[in-house]
TrEMBL record:
Belongs to the NLE1/RSA4 family. This is NLE domain-containing protein. PROSITE patterns: WD_REPEATS_1, WD_REPEATS_2, WD_REPEATS_REGION. GO terms for biological process: Notch signaling pathway; ribosomal large subunit assembly. PANTHER family: NOTCHLESS PROTEIN HOMOLOG 1, WD40 REPEAT PROTEIN. WD repeats lie at residues 107-148, 149-190, 193-230, 240-270, 363-404, 405-446, 447-480.
C-alpha cells in the first residue's frame, strides 16, 4: 500500500484519505488494490495517525455519502480506475447501542391517547403528554409512574425537556404553556403563560451553551405567531411575527438563530436575540410539517455525554464548558448548521440557513406527505417518515437519496435515531414499531404490541431504551 503519484496499476485504484473536516491524511495519494477491505483501510489510517498501539475503529465513506462496507469493489458500483477516489474516514462512535428487541413494560395511566413522549436529556426520566390533559413523569429505574402533572384544561399537544433536564414545558390545545419541575412534578410558573390565541404546535428551549440557566423558551402556534418566553417571569420577551398561517415546527439552533416552518409554505430564519427576520426560505408548494437540524442531538444532550453515562457535571462552570465543547466538536464534523424541511407536497428541502436562501438540495421520491424528518446524531444522514408507508434515508451533507425502508403497512408517523446513528426506530398507524439497521438499511426487528396507532416514539439519549405511545393510551418501554 505505497503512497504514489496517483498512477494506478491495473486492479488498483488511487485513493486519497481525508478527515471529516477535510484534512488530508498522509503524504498524498495511495495506490490500493480494488479489493482492499475496510479492515485494511482501518489499519492504514491508524498507522498514519500513529494509533497502531490503540487502534480506533473507523468507517469510510465516499464524498457522496456511500459507506464502504466490506471492500471498495463491493461498495462502489462502476469504480473509476482513472480518477482519484476521495474517501472520508470517520472514527466510529465509541459506544454501541444494542437494538431494542422486547417490551420491558407497558405503562397504563393516561385516560386518552398519548400524543407525545420524551426522554430527559440525561436519559434518567421520561415525560408523556396526553389527550387526557395531563403530563405524566415516569421513573425509568422502576418503570413506574412518578408524578401526574395536572393543570392543563385541554389536550396536551407537545412537551419539551429543558437542556439541563431540570424542567419540562408542556403546551395544550387552548394555547397555554405550563413549566413543571422534572424531579417533583410541581408547577413552576407562578402565572399562566397564555398568549397564543389557538393551540400550540411546537416548543423549543434556547440551547444550553447560549443560556445555561435554561430560562428562555420559544413556542409556535396555530395563530401563526412565535413567542419567546422568559420562563422565570412568565412574560413574553419577544414575538416573531411574519408567518401568515399555522407555524407547525420550530427549532432553536446553536448559532443564535430560530427556524420556523409553517403552513404558509415558508421556512423563516430569525435572530433570537432581537427577533429580526434574517431569511425567508421558499420552494415548498404546500404546508411544511416538520423541521430538523443536524445539531439537534448535540443540543438536546447538551451537558450530558452519553459516553460518560450522561453524568451531570459537578459545577455550572464545568457544565458550560462541556456544552460548548460538545457543540464545537459537532460543528467541526458537520461544518455548518443544516436544516431540513418536510412538507405536504411530498418533498424535502435541505438548507444552509445561516448562509443562503437557496436550498442545498430538493429531495423527491415520497408518494405522500412527509410527516417527520430527523438527522442522525453523527449528522451524516437524515431520515424522513411519510404517509406513503416508507422511510427514506438521505445524505446529510448533499441531500442525495440513499435508501428506502419498507415494511410498514400504513402511514409512518414518527422516527428516532439511536445515539450511535447505527439504528433507527419508526412508529406507524399500523400499530407497530420497527427497528432498522442502518448499515445494510434493512429491517432489524419488528415490534408489535400496541393496540392501535403509534403517535410518538423516542430513543433515549444513552441508547438504552425506546419509548412509544399512541391511541391505545399505553406507554411502552422497549429494551434489548
Amino acid at each position: 500500500m505505497e503512497s504514489g503519484d496517483g498512477e494506478a496499476a491495473p486492479g488498483s485504484v488511487s485513493v486519497r484519505l481525508i478527515s471529516e473536516d477535510g484534512q488530508q491524511l498522509g503524504s498524498g495519494i495511495f495506490n490500493l488494490p480494488v479489493g482492499v477491505t475496510t479492515i485494511q483501510l482501518q489499519l492504514l489510517c491508524n498507522q498514519l495517525l500513529e494509533q497502531s498501539d490503540d487502534p480506533v475503529p473507523m468507517s469510510f465513506f465516499t464524498e457522496e455519502g456511500t459507506e464502504i462496507v466490506d471492500s471498495l469493489k463491493k461498495s462502489i458500483e462502476n469504480l473509476d480506475y482513472e480518477t482519484t477516489l476521495t474517501l472520508v474516514y470517520q472514527p466510529q462512535a465509541v459506544f454501541r447501542v444494542r437494538p431494542v428487541t422486547r417490551c420491558s413494560s407497558s405503562l397504563p395511566g393516561h385516560g386518552e391517547a398519548v400524543i407525545s413522549a420524551q426522554f430527559s436529556p440525561d436519559g434518567k426520566s421520561l415525560a408523556s403528554g396526553s389527550g387526557d390533559t395531563t403530563v405524566r413523569l415516569w421513573d425509568l429505574n422502576t418503570e413506574l409512574p412518578l408524578h401526574t402533572c395536572q393543570g392543563h384544561k385541554n389536550w396536551v399537544l407537545c412537551i419539551s425537556w429543558s437542556p439541563d433536564a431540570s424542567k419540562i414545558a408542556s403546551a395544550d390545545k387552548n394555547g397555554v404553556i405550563i413549566i413543571w419541575d422534572g424531579a417533583t412534578g410541581k408547577q413552576l410558573n407562578s402565572k399562566p403563560m397564555a398568549r397564543h390565541k389557538q393551540w400550540i404546535t411546537s416548543l423549543a428551549w434556547e440551547p444550553y451553551h447560549k443560556d445555561p440557566k435554561c430560562r428562555y423558551l420559544a413556542s409556535a402556534g396555530k395563530d401563526a405567531n412565535i413567542h419567546i418566553w422568559d420562563t422565570v417571569t412568565c412574560l413574553v420577551v419577544r414575538s416573531l411575527t411574519g408567518h401568515t398561517a399555522c407555524v407547525t415546527s420550530i427549532r432553536w439552533g446553536g448559532e443564535g438563530l430560530i427556524y420556523s416552518g409553517s403552513q404558509d409554505r415558508t421556512v423563516k430564519v430569525w435572530r433570537s436575540d432581537d427577533g429580526v427576520l434574517c431569511r425567508n426560505l421558499t420552494g415548498h408548494a404546500h404546508w411544511i410539517n416538520t423541521l430538523a437540524l443536524n445539531t439537534d442531538y448535540v443540543l438536546r444532550t447538551s451537558i450530558f455525554e452519553p459516553r460518560g453515562n450522561c453524568q451531570r457535571p459537578e459545577s455550572e462552570e464545568k457544565a458550560l464548558k462541556i456544552a460548548e465543547s460538545r457543540y464545537a466538536s459537532a460543528m467541526k464534523v458537520c461544518g455548518e448548521e443544516y436544516l431540513v424541511s418536510g412538507s405536504d407536497d411530498f418533498t424535502l428541502f435541505l438548507w444552509s440557513p445561516a448562509k443562503s436562501k437557496t436550498p442545498v438540495g430538493r429531495m423527491t421520491g415520497h408518494q405522500a406527505l412527509v410527516n417527520q424528518v430527523a438527522f442522525s446524531p453523527d449528522t451524516r444522514y437524515f431520515a424522513s417518515a411519510s404517509f406513503d408507508k416508507s422511510i427514506k434515508v438521505w445524505c446529510g451533507k448533499t441531500g442525495k437519496y440513499l435508501a428506502s425502508l419498507r415494511g410498514h403497512v400504513s402511514s409512518v408517523y414518527q422516527i428516532a435515531w439511536s445515539a450511535d446513528s447505527r439504528l433507527l426506530v419508526s412508529g406507524s398507524s399500523d400499530s407497530t414499531l420497527k427497528v432498522w439497521d442502518m448499515k445494510n438499511r434493512q429491517l432489524h426487528t419488528d415490534l408489535p404490541g400496541h393496540g392501535d396507532e403509534v403517535y410518538t416514539v423516542d430513543w433515549s439519549p444513552d441508547g438504552a431504551k425506546v419509548v412509544s405511545g399512541g391511541k391505545d393510551k399505553v406507554l411502552k418501554i422497549w429494551k434489548h
